[in-house]
Write a structure and sequence with these properties.
Elements lengths: L5 E4 L8 E7 L3 H10 L3 E4 L13 E4 L6 E5 L4 E5 L4 H8 L4 E3 L10 H6 L7 H4 L6 E7 L5 E5 L4 H7 L8 E11 L4 E9 L2 H10 L5 E6 L11 E8 L7 H4 L24 H13 L5 E7 H5 L17 E9 L3 H15 L6 E6 L14 E9 L4 H14 L3 E2 L9 H4 L13 H8 L2
Parallel strand pairs: 2-4, 3-4
Antiparallel strand pairs: 1-2, 5-6, 6-10, 7-10, 8-9, 8-10, 11-13, 11-14, 12-13, 12-16, 15-17, 15-18, 16-17
């Protein structure tokens, strides 16, 4: 009798929740058999994307593809299976004096997911996307064959898979470059901005910094619209560090990580509590500017210190809405977006503004374009679809686009920018939704 692998599956936003088949295998023969035995397959890493991006009729979980293959310590090149998490890469590489060139806001994503989403970080304007540092990967195609993809070999599949959301096949393993560091600490400057005008000026003045990001209060109106805190940083050299940090510059002390034990009741998150949180977050920095040294986990992954933080949004879940507006229209577009959010009353705890530089034109399925990107978390409620429609219309008006890794309900004209990924075999619920909306 064939085992029943149908189960409830959802991604980090806990929306949507579906009942689908999900399997995890660790041998190529079994993976090939799974691919050939099913009409529609999609790969899933650690489920830390949002929405319906890695959900499908038959889901292949890469969690058992979790082995390191090699680590060239001389040149900083690592090879591992696609289910290895960025957190595991950091555990191995940081003590050896290496760090990820590009990392998103959580370290708990898989290497395969980082390639499929072509993730970006706080340094896109300076160092681009994750794909810039991927040298090759092995891909299982719809026939169950393994092909090596690089800039020289099967280059068409290489570039289609970069940012291709898993629609070209299953990434089995990958090889990528790391950057040299002298310490596990970041030299950081935090600067308060009174409004949108000031935060855009600060971004312009900070383009020479490797890492820049701003938390933004999305509920302010009038003269205070865009009130925010810019954080900019550089990897600290050992000689810069305070004596206590300089003793063991590449090793961090283990921290206590609290866990959210249950789903919060729906009434906890509302316009008032979000407004209070935003006020307290802005006021907690009492000085206009603070300079300090912090460990890389605090700088890059502030939410990773709380296990299961997604439960704060309750059982109904939440979406993350992320868009990019071209640079020349960035200020005007962001003002209109923030005004719309403030008027809707659907506030966001986590509103993050970043600057994108020019993207590699070869990575044509990659989300970034030169401009400003804003990511916001919204609790799922009866008003949310109307707000998403309003935001979609603004993004379209200003020539922007939506990030597929976060998407679960946006209009297809903003999400359907994928090319050369059509496959009768590798299909996600997200892609079907987009195609059906055309």
């Amino acid at each position: 009798m064939k085992p029943n692998f149908v189960q409830k599956v959802t991604n980090w936003g806990n929306y949507p929740v579906v009942e689908k088949e999900m399997r995890s295998e660790d041998t190529l023969g079994k993976i090939k058999n799974f691919v050939l035995s099913n009409n529609e397959v999609i790969a899933r890493g650690n489920g830390r994307c949002y929405g319906d991006a890695s959900l499908g009729e038959h889901i292949f979980s890469t969690k058992k593809l979790n082995k390191f293959i090699s680590f060239d310590r001389l040149n900083g090149i690592i090879e591992c299976e696609s289910g290895v998490l960025l957190s595991e890469v950091l555990e191995v590489s940081v003590p050896q004096g290496y760090f990820l060139y590009v990392t998103p806001g959580t370290k708990f994503i898989s290497v395969g997911g980082a390639i499929a989403s072509d993730v970006h970080g706080k340094n896109h304007h300076a160092e681009g996307c994750f794909s810039e540092y991927v040298t090759e990967f092995k891909l299982m195609n719809e026939n169950g064959e393994i092909i090596i993809c690089s800039r020289e070999e099967n280059a068409d599949k290489f570039w289609a898979t970069i940012g291709g959301m898993g629609l070209t096949g299953i990434i089995i393993s990958a090889k990528f470059k790391l950057k040299n560091i002298e310490s596990a600490y970041i030299r950081q400057e935090s600067i308060k901005a009174d409004n949108l005008e000031e935060i855009f000026r600060l971004f312009d003045e900070s383009e020479s910094w490797t890492y820049t990001v701003a938390w933004i209060d999305c509920l302010q109106k009038g003269k205070d619209i865009g009130r925010s805190i810019l954080m900019r940083g550089e990897h600290a050299f050992q000689h810069e560090l305070p004596q206590k940090m300089a003793k063991n510059p590449l090793r961090l002390k283990e921290k206590f990580k609290p866990t959210v034990p249950f789903y919060f009741p729906n009434f906890v998150l509302n316009a008032l509590t979000v407004k209070i949180f935003n006020l307290l977050y802005y006021k907690k920095q009492t000085k206009k500017e603070i300079k300090n040294f912090i460990d890389y986990e605090t700088f890059f992954y502030p939410l990773d210190v709380i296990n299961d933080w997604n439960k704060i949004y309750g059982k109904s879940g939440f979406i993350q809405y992320q868009m990019v507006i071209p640079k020349e229209k960035g200020k005007e577009g962001m003002k209109k977006i923030l005004e719309t959010i403030a008027n809707s009353g659907n506030g966001s705890f986590l509103a993050v503004l970043k600057l994108f530089g020019k993207n590699n034109p070869q990575a044509y399925n990659s989300f970034p374009m030169e401009g400003y990107t804003l990511a916001l978390d919204f609790k799922v409620n009866s008003k949310l679809k109307k707000l998403v429609e309003q935001l979609d219309n603004i993004v379209q008006e200003f020539g922007g686009r939506i990030y597929l890794t976060k998407d679960s309900m946006s209009k297809s004209s903003l999400t359907n920018y994928l090319k050369n990924v059509q496959s009768p075999k590798f299909v996600s619920l997200q892609h079907k939704r987009i195609l059906n909306n055309n």
